[in-house]
């Protein structure tokens, strides 16, 4: 298929672009002004300029959005422009759109306030016949924004750090498994559908211990919020998210299901 990728220089997007090319698809990438050059055909456009998105996204078999979220106004204008362009969309949100608790692909979103508008983004994508992918926290290959943040805190404190109480669970996924899921979604997912990119459910205090050389201490939410802003609130959101239907219908089997061992063997590069 002829596929445009938005966010192809990013952590997830670069893996997805490589996996789609490897699977034989004709990959093009959105390149913003001054953006890094990649070994794919580039199409000019910028997520902050909806008119440029509408021009860029026309005429593809799939447009796969794995770009950064830029806030309610820009994301909603952007999704409308992409829908107007007329190419079938595959749009990335995230498990946080489901809020806390137990959920599967049929659960109505109850988004965490940090990503509140993403439920409406999803609604517009699905109403237009697009496909939504909700990844859990993505790790692997020494990358990922959250592992990098937690590794930086561990290096600073000399011990692992988790926010709030111990025992908070998050859905997580290795970037290579997630890239394989996008290939399956591009090739086989029907219109108006939602897919969960989660390989396992992991405890954040155990991840902190793995990054802290075997020890971890709590970081009070108020202190973490003072440093990280509202993002800190996501770290106390306990989530048990199923991807059973995604696995069954797309024949997707994550190969990496031991994040704690992985982070010990292949530590993330701390964020600067
Ligand atoms: N990583 C995770 O753990 C995780 C978990 C759940 C959901 N997600 C979702 O997955 C998506 C990708 O995450 P990621 O971790 O791969 O992010 P990332 O590494 O920060 O990559 C973001 C991408 O967006 C591009 N971008 C930013 N501003 C842009 C603009 N104005 N115009 C065009 N492109 C722009 C960046 O391009 P430049 O290189 O030019 O800046 C980059 O390619 C996001 O929607 C995120 O919310 C990620």
TrEMBL record:
SUPFAM superfamilies listed in its UniProt record: NAD(P)-binding Rossmann-fold domains (SSF51735)
Annotated GO CC locations: cytoplasm
Coiled-coil annotated spans: none
Residues of the NAD-dependent epimerase/dehydratase domain: 3-188
GO molecular function, one term: aldehyde dehydrogenase (NAD+) activity
Domain of life: Bacteria
Protein name: Nucleoside-diphosphate-sugar epimerase
Natural source organism: Actinomadura namibiensis
């Amino acid at each position: 298929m002829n596929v445009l990728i938005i966010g192809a220089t990013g952590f997830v997007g670069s893996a997805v672009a490589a996996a789609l090319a490897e699977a034989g698809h004709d990959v093009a990438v959105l390149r913003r002004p001054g953006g890094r050059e990649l070994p794919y055909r580039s199409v000019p456009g910028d997520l902050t300029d909806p008119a440029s998105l509408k021009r860029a996204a026309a005429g593809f078999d799939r447009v796969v959005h794995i770009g950064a979220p830029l806030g309610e106004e820009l994301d909603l204008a952007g999704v409308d422009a992409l829908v107007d362009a007329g190419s079938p969309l595959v749009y990335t949100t995230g498990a946080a759109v489901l809020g806390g608790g137990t959920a599967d692909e049929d659960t109505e979103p109850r988004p965490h306030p940090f990503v509140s508008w993403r439920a409406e983004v999803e609604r517009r994508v699905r109403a237009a016949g697009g496909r939504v992918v909700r990844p859990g926290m993505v790790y692997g290959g020494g990358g990922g924004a959250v592992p990098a943040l937690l590794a930086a805190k561990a290096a600073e404190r000399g011990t692992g750090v988790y926010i709030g109480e111990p025992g908070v669970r998050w859905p997580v996924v290795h970037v290579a498994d997630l890239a394989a899921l996008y290939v399956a979604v591009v090739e086989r997912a029907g219109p108006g559908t939602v897919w969960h990119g989660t390989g396992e459910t992991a405890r954040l205090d155990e991840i902190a211990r793995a990054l802290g050389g075997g020890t971890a201490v709590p970081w009070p939410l108020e202190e973490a919020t003072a440093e990280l802003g509202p993002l800190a609130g996501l770290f106390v959101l306990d989530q048990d998210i199923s991807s059973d239907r995604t696995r069954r219908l797309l024949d997707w089997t994550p190969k990496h299901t031991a994040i704690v061992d992985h982070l010990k063997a292949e530590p993330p590069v701390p964020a600067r």
